[in-house]
Amino acid sequence: MALKASRRAAIDPFIVMEVMRAANERAASGGDVIHMEVGQPSTPAPRAVREAAQKALDRDLIGYTDALGVPALRRRIAQHYSEFYDIDVAASRIAVTTGSSGGFLLAFLAAFDPGDRVALAMPGYPCYRHILAALGLEPVLIETGPETKFQPTIAALEALAGRLDGLIIASPSNPVGAVLPAAELDVIAAWCAKNGVRLVSDEIYHGITFGTHASSAACHDGAIVINSFSKYFSMTGWRLGWMVLPDDLVKPVERLAQNFFISAPSLSQLAGGAAFDAHEELQGNVARYAQNRELLLNELPRAGFDDLTSTDGAFYIYAHVAKLTDDSLGFCRRMLAETGIAATPGIDFDPARGRHYMRFCFSGATADMAEAARRLIAWRK
Asked: What span, in angstroms and rounded, lies between the C-alpha atoms of 201 and 185?
C-alpha cells in the first residue's frame, strides 16, 4: 500500500540550484565550468570575519544562542541602520536568522494564515512563491515589465482583484537588479498601511548598487525587513541573516524560531558582527561587480544577447532571448554542455514568460567574465 506524502512534497524546484548541481557534476567529471547561475560572490568572507571565527572556535563553546540571536550581534545590526541609513532601529526589533531563507519562512508564518493572499512581482525570486504555496498561502503574481523596471506600482496593486493580505517587494530586485527609488518605496509603504496589507521588504542586495542608493523599509510602521550576510558581506555558506520586525511580531517570531531553528548558527553569529567593520574590503568587491557589469553589457550583445536590462544593483543581468530560443531551459542546458557556462533559465523567475529570458550572474572574477564573453561570442557565430 502506498504511503501518504504531503502535497507540500510537490513544491516546485529552485531551478538555479538544479543548474548548479549540473554544473558541479560537469566539474566533478573533469569539465570546466564558469559559474554564472547562482548568486554567490567568488570571494570568501571578509578577513575580519574569518579571524573572529577562529578566535571563537578557540574560546567559545559554540553552543545554542537566544532564538533571536546573540545580543551583541543584534546591537551591531541595529547600529548598522544608524550608520548606513540614518535610521534609528532598536536592537529589540532585530531577529538573527538562518540566512534570509529562514527569515522568509519566519516572516510568512508570523504574519499570515493559510489562505491569505500575498502579492509579488513577476519575474521575481522563485522561493517567495514556492514557500508561500508550501505554507498554504496564495501567491498573487503581478506581471511587470521593463516600463516599470520590473517593479510593482500602485496602479498594478489597485488593479488586482480580491483582497490582499501581504506584499513582497525586493530592491535591488532579483533577477533584474532594479532599485525602488525612496519616494516610490514610501508611496508603496503608505498604500500598504492604508489598505491593511503587510509589507515584506527583501533587502538582501543592499550595499551592491551602481550609482544609486537603496532605501530601507525599516522606518515604515508594520513593515518586515529581511536582510542577509550572504551577498554584500560575501558570506553565503555561513547561513546568517536578519529581520527587522515591527514590535507586534517580535514575540511571535521568537516563538517560531525557538521551535523551528533553536537559533541561527552560533559560530556565524559570533563572527558575523566583524563584517560591519569590513566595508573597505567589501567595497572592493562592489567595484569588481561594477567592472563585470560594464564588461558584460558591452560584450554580450556581440554574442547576440542584445536585449538586456541594465541593472541598478545586485549582480545580475536579465536577458530577453526570444530571438535566440523559445525554450530558455533547454537553451541553458545546451550552453552549459557546449561552452561550460552555467546560467539560469528565466522560467525560474517567471514561469509564464521566462522561456524567453535568462539570467547571467556577474559575481565571479573579472577574468572569468571576460572568458565567458569570449566563449559566448565564439559559440554564437
From this structure: 10
- The separation between CA 238 and the C-alpha centre of its own chain, rounded to angstroms, equals 15
Residue-wise pLDDT tens digits, 67-121: 999 999 999 999 999 999 999 999 999 999 999 999 999 999 999 999 999 999 9
Mean pLDDT over the full length of the chain: 96
For 148, other C-beta atoms within 10 Å of its C-beta total: 15
Give the pLDDT score at 28: 96
Q: Residue 311: what pLDDT?
A: 80
Which three cell numbers, joined as nine digits, stand for 88?
534609528
370: left (phi over 0), alpha (psi -120 to 50) or beta: alpha
* Cβ atoms of residues 106 and 97 within 8 Å: yes
Beta strands in the chain (DSSP E): 34-35, 94-97, 117-122, 138-143, 166-170, 198-202, 224-228, 241-244, 308-309, 316-320, 341-342, 344-345, 357-361
Contact of 267 with 274, CB cutoff 8 Å = no
Q: Which amino acid does the sequence have at 179?
A: V
Evaluate the omega torsion of the peptide bond into residue 139 and state whether it is cis, within 30 degrees of 0. Answer: no
For the cut 80, the answer to whether the pLDDT of residue 281 exceeds it is yes
Phi, psi dihedral angles at 262 (to 5 degrees): 65, -65
User: How long, in residues, is the chain?
Assistant: 381
Rounded average pLDDT over 178-202: 97
Question: Could you tell me the maximum CA-CA distance found in the chain, to the nearest angstrom?
Answer: 61
Burial grade of 163 (CB within 10 A; 0-12, 13-18, 19 or more): exposed
pLDDT tens-digit readout, 360-373: 999 999 999 999 99
Neighbour tally for 320: CB within 10 Å: 17
pTM above 0.70, yes or no: yes
Comparing C-alpha atoms, which of 236, 169, 172 is closest to residue 210?
172
Whether 192 and 217 have beta carbons less than 8 Å apart is answered as no
